[in-house]
DNA sequence: CTGTTAGCGCTTTCAT
DNA sequence: ATGAAAGCGCTAACAG
């Protein structure tokens, strides 16, 4: 099943509107050769008599001429297109990174070809292929699980690429993302300071996602220094409803312990602060947890469990959830800058750019 | 100030990786002519001896050849690219519509060129221009305030286009969106049934956005039938913080009336249901309102005001807000189908496709 | 069945 | 200062 637009399949020819003016039309209209028009288009005014220049200007105006980028790209060998592969646009993180990318593209004169894998590994591969087919000059990849190393192991042939948030196994390319270790430390320190006696890190399946792996590891490392506080990691697979429910149920179990009033009686609310805190590995996880807790314990759930989450979506403020905000726009911007340098020929070793996160304290951790 | 990637500015030539194989390379490698390769690429197997076909296959494989879409497009006159102009990707509505668009593109063999205006009218114009420069075959527009009618007034020259959610003044093109009138009726009927004595419709500046205008009008119309319930419309300009604060303050005024306990004392909560309900014109408005109410009255704000909102973002479930969900993906899908027909030459009069919304009742309206 | 020959719209020597 | 001609990579007649 081909789900990504494959190379123009045997398509029937199609009627075109009154056909756009071409450079030849303009040349004729201006009574000159195509060369001069081209020169005009490329701003080589120093080699154009004011008179000719004016005629060209007029002709272009009259014909509402727009140079065809495809043709230019074909001739020049560069088309100023870069691919932006996003794992999941429904995650605000992605949208924000995208904004940074767009800003940088504008500044550097690129046009981002945005591809949304919508969490489907298969899509991802197809899009990557498609991008090379459109001869993008480079790709920014927020990978899902890219297998094929159709990407450029910095230096070797292949298409220049920079990774965002996560590495791609076996691919030695530039990478920009959050300083996960520091961010985790920021989070655990906060939780510890709040006096929780048990902290469980909740994360989506992390084997194949480097950022998640690092967060998990960093969490475990950080907690090793305070053995008196119980630390654990729970996997919450958002793509698998049954598994997710089970994980959530397990979480309930832990929460239930040490809190022995009837969870169905909202009036019997805790007065003592919660003993356990959940540390969500990203916003989607936090959302799922909050939804679940809210359904199970009612709006007062924060009296029973602490919650800290990576990412800082708009709703976190509304729900009063403490978060670790990522410098998303900066990440996107930086990624394009890196890519630009690569496109321009930079051949240094792969670089790693980690930006710091920021802790936003709210009610969910006993604010 | 040029903020959108302008046509490849006088850019310096750049080093290209080991250069990708071209059709000529493949022809040579396979010991045949380019024509046969082209035929192979286009699936005209019936005119290729099995032997030659195999040789070509091998050559392509060996050279890791990928046909250049730009070149194909140039020759063919169609490049299977369509533009998707989005007013604001940070609005979940847009992302969801986009998902529908992507799905349809995959099905129909198009590649969407996504342009994000990020709420800046200027950007919008530039992107539109850029899109024509890349010779997209059509555009799907979720407009912000397109001025230039560079779009195709169905039938006339110009680029085929279909509008999403909102019309573009003076442009007679296909349009697909929500059945706003029915949706508003759904909402007001619900609010009325809940017994609110006053309902105020809160909406972003609506002069230039058809969907908002229609919602406002429909609301006023609907409320005319029940003169005993006070109805009003308040504009909340999210782009202007001062104006927004003022509007919110005005809202507080109304809410305050008839509820005379200390808003700072959470224990003195109302027992009687709220007399007034807010009807948010879209999700961003609802978010702003919720944030404000939450800050002012605390988590218990729903005991003082009812809230109903257009759009159904994920956080609405968490916050327990009653919403009117739009068939977003269907809208996106449909838009592409319409556009496809236009591209294929359909020249009928402009069509209007309005899809029904769905009321999702939650706690915020006295659930 | 297969290859030759023109271009698509644009840029770029190379002359003039 | 200006233009003619040769392609960029590919497709599409038109011959064999």
From TrEMBL, chains A, B:
Q: Which Gene3D superfamilies match?
A: 3.40.50.2300, lambda repressor-like DNA-binding domains
Q: Where is the composition biased (Pro residues)?
A: 1-10
The HTH lacI-type domain covers 21-76
Write down the InterPro entries for this protein, in alphabetical order.
Answer: HTH_LacI (IPR000843), Lambda_DNA-bd_dom_sf (IPR010982), Peripla_BP/Lac1_sug-bd_dom (IPR001761), Peripla_BP_I (IPR028082)
What does the record give under GO molecular function?
DNA binding
The alphabetical list of record keywords is: DNA-binding, Transcription, Transcription regulation
> Could you tell me where the Low complexity compositional bias lies?
11-21
Q: Name one Pfam family in it.
A: LacI
Reply yes or no: does the keyword Electron transport apply: no
Which region is the signal sequence? none
Q: Where is this region: Disordered?
A: 1-21
Q: What is this protein called?
A: LacI family DNA-binding transcriptional regulator
Query: Which species is this UniProt entry from?
Result: Paraburkholderia kururiensis
